[in-house]
Amino acid sequence: MLVINKINPLKAKIGALKRKGLTIGFVPTMGALHEGHLSLMRRAGRETDIVVVSIFVNPMQFGPKEDYKRYPRPVQQDLHLCRSAGVDIVFSPSDKEIYPFTARPFRTSPQASDTLTRTFVDMYKLTETMCGKSRPGHFRGVLTVVNKLFNIVEPDIAYFGQKDYQQALVIKQMVTDLNMDVQVKVMPIVREKDGLAMSSRNKYLTPAERQEAICLYRALLKATELICSSRRPVSAVKIIGAMKGIINSVRHSRIDYIAVVDPQTLEPIKTITYRQVLIALAVYIGKTRLIDNFLICK
Ligand code: PAF
Fold this sequence. Notes:
The protein is of the alpha/beta class. The chain folds into 2 domains: 2-187, Rossmann fold; 200-292, Pantoate--beta-alanine Ligase, Chain: A,domain 2 (2-Layer Sandwich). 36% of the residues lie in helices and 20% in strands. It is built from 10 helices and 11 strands. The strands form 3 sheets. A 6-stranded parallel beta sheet has the order 1-4-3-2-5-6, with helices on both faces. Helix 6 (138-153) packs across helix 7 (165-177) and helix 9 (215-229) packs antiparallel against helix 10. The protein is globular and about 60 Å long. The structure holds pantoate (PAF). Pantoate (PAF) binds next to strand 2 and helix 6.
């Protein structure tokens, strides 16, 4: 396995592999790898010739009060996991390599990200709701870095996890809107035995909070039960009410949002009839913000 920190040598290596006719599978990550990431890497290994993983904690996608500084960075462990998952190349750049520009631009703006880049990718609508509403500027940071990484790696297929449903959707939309030559695949959420969705941020939870964190999964199960057991259309208000009941019964929980939305447009659905619905939520357990979702097909 090759570990490359600089853009130019990586591009040269990938260029040479592509000239041999090999296909590139790409798994962008922020490290602190878990089974969810590894499932993407293994899938990439089955579907493409060369698996490239990026490990980069992207400052541009964190708000000023968020956990950028304390985000876990277990470098050696991550490299070991990549090796065990059959990864060919790990791209692990410094902040300067990705964002060489550091001066504040001429126009002041509330986005902290303006100190990192002059040019960025942003999107209307899909980014204005759910996580985008609670984390202003987050998706601008995600889209900009993913765009840069796609330009650097030039993957044939890029793999993302469904846990970040909105992220995967906006990345797919960017690829369509900007005519990018990459196929985006979204893979199922990998869960702990008790149902908690795997996340790098689960590491922040104290043992007591870890127990409480299953309330997200339990709330999603309850929503599924309400939707699937009823012969009549169910209202979103009823579902959200039942989910709130479960989450609020947990001592250290604070709901950021619960969304009952159309899986393609992320627009709220008032009444669930016979179509697909996305139930997504973000909940603080103590200081840790966790997200999860179910795509329900009635
Ligand atoms: O999902 C993540 O880990 C990040 O948002 C991503 C896609 C690697 C961009 O920094």
